[in-house]
Amino acid sequence: MYKLSSKPLISKAELSERVNSLAAEIAAAGEFDILLGILTGSFVFVADLVRAMPKANEKGMRVKFFKASSYGDSTESGTLTVSGMENLDLTGKRVLLVDDILDTGNTLYRLVPMLKERGAAVVKTCVLLDKPSRREAPIEADFVGFKIENKFVVGYGLDYADDYRTLPEIMTMEEV
Ligand code: IMP
Ligand code: MG
């Protein structure tokens, strides 16, 4: 059993400040043709990130999503299910793959080659949160918002069994 922490791990103000500086880091690294968000956890982060990247949008960076889930109703990693990638034309494109959190790394480690197989010229990865202590696959993200300790987090798009996604701050789940 888990319960929600009483105070945020990352506040609204911290999120907003870091998302803005991250957008600037990404913009400084070059242009991307497509930002690909991984559903469902990245939806809030992507929405804030693209609005902090006005230049990218002026130049017509496309925003697309597909679904990848590796979590059932628990906090442990499971099998990866991918859908919605069939219709993505990535031929010769510079792709920024965005997820909410890099945990074991198994998800991004498997998705990056899939995007390259679909013709992407460049695939860079961006995550809001990174839990380096949990890593199993040999992967690091190119752009990281915050490195955090090994705690299960929710809010700002992240869920626990599909709950808590709409919380505006990053909260932790504590075992009771
Ligand atoms: P990975 O494959 O273990 O790196 O897991 C990545 C996915 O697991 C993310 O896209 C999240 O959906 C989910 N995940 C990992 N840690 C957390 C967490 O602390 N809270 C919510 N979701 C998480
Ligand atoms: Mg996810």
What is the number of helical segments per DSSP (H or I, 4+ residues)?
4
Number of strand elements? 9
> What is the structural class?
alpha/beta
What letter string, H or E per element, gives the SSE order?
EHEHHEEEHEEEE
CATH architecture descriptor name of the domain at 11-69 and 89-151: 3-Layer(aba) Sandwich
Strand content: 25-35%
Mean pLDDT: 93
The rounded distance between the terminal residues' Cα atoms is 6 Å
Poorly predicted runs: none
- Strands across the major sheet, in which order? 4-3-2-5-6-7
Using only CA atoms, what is the Rg? 16 Å
Bound molecules: inosinic acid, magnesium ion
Topology:
Elements: E1 2-4, H1 12-28, E2 34-39, H2 43-51, H3 54-58, E3 62-69, E4 81-83, E5 94-102, H4 106-117, E6 122-130, E7 143-147, E8 153-154, E9 171-175
Parallel strand pairs: 2-3, 2-5, 5-6, 6-7
Antiparallel strand pairs: 1-9, 3-4, 8-9
Helix pairs in contact: 1-2
Magnesium ion binds next to strand 5.
Describe the structure.
The protein is of the alpha/beta class and 176 residues long. It has a domain at 11-69 and 89-151: Rossmann fold, CATH 3.40.50. Helices cover 24% and strands 28% of the residues. It contains 4 helices and 9 strands, in the order E-H-E-H-H-E-E-E-H-E-E-E-E. A 6-stranded mixed β-sheet has the order 4-3-2-5-6-7. The chain has a 3-stranded antiparallel β-sheet with strand order 1-9-8, with no helix packed on it. It starts with a strand and ends with a strand. The mean pLDDT is 93. Inosinic acid is lined by residues 41, 70-71, 77, 99-107, 152-154, 158-159.
